Amino acid sequence: MKASVKMLFLESSLELVPRELHREPDVIRSARRYEIPPARLILDKSLHYKAMRGLERKWKRGRPDIIHICLLLATDTPLTRMGVLEVYFHVLDGRVFKVRSDTRLPRHLERFKGVMADLLISDSVPVGSPDPLIFKVSDSLEEFVAREGKLILLWEKGEPRRPEEVVEEAIEENAIIGIGAFPRGDFEETTLRLAYKRYAIAGGHPLAAWSVTSRLLCELERRLGI
Ligand SMILES: C[S@@+](CC[C@H](N)C(=O)[O-])C[C@H]1O[C@@H](n2cnc3c(N)ncnc32)[C@H](O)[C@@H]1O
Predict the structure, then answer these.
(1) Ligand 1 centroid, distance to 62 Cα (angstroms)
(2) Cβ atoms 180, 187 nearer than 8 A
(3) Domains of the chain by range and CATH?
(4) 201 in Cβ contact with 161 (< 8 Å)
(5) Residue 130 has pLDDT above 80, yes or no
(6) Which residues pair with 10 in a beta bridge?
(7) Fewer CB near the terminus (10 Å): N or C of the chain?
(8) pTM, 2 dp
């Protein structure tokens, strides 16, 4: 049987601007600049920094660039195009989305944000397509993990492992590889509890999500002889 691996980006820092911020000057300014109503804007710390000052857990929010880079890396590998790697991402409201293997994501962040706004509003893109490229597969992480398999969490405070060992176990156990796609702070307790293994690479040194992603992708390609 052909080996396959699932990669899941967790707690991705991706959301629409919350309704309570729609009247903030930062938000009105960016809505005018992009000619988009505030309800269709993606929260972006680089544009909405002042508006975000009172937001709960603001250190984890407003960084759509992180999931953008991670998805570009994970979809730009032969592994994905050959159907060996399945790519998913979870957002802070709990939904989990799948990125189809033939998806060509926008390279430019602003265009990516536009597509993501459509996705968060409509649950699939292109909106209204009977055969969407990115679509919701679950309303909750708990349900997704229960259905799709065991979760190995990449976690700075986990047990030390080499990337090749993480990849080997994911293949052997048909486990999902989970990587946080948020800028700061830790996973929620509810996420940590869903993992059956939590592993640290690079001696637990805190790495950016895209660095962890690229290390694991390289190991996967090596392990699968690609
Ligand atoms: C930028 S980190 C999250 C924020 C980080 N805790 C901080 O406060 O700087 C993004 C994700 O990369 C993964 N990660 C980063 N360094 C790691 C390491 N040394 N071992 C395993 N996973 C790591 C984790 O999944 C983490 O959630």
Answers:
(1) 17
(2) yes
(3) 5-14+61-223 (3.40.1280.10), 19-58 (no CATH)
(4) yes
(5) yes
(6) 180
(7) N
(8) 0.97
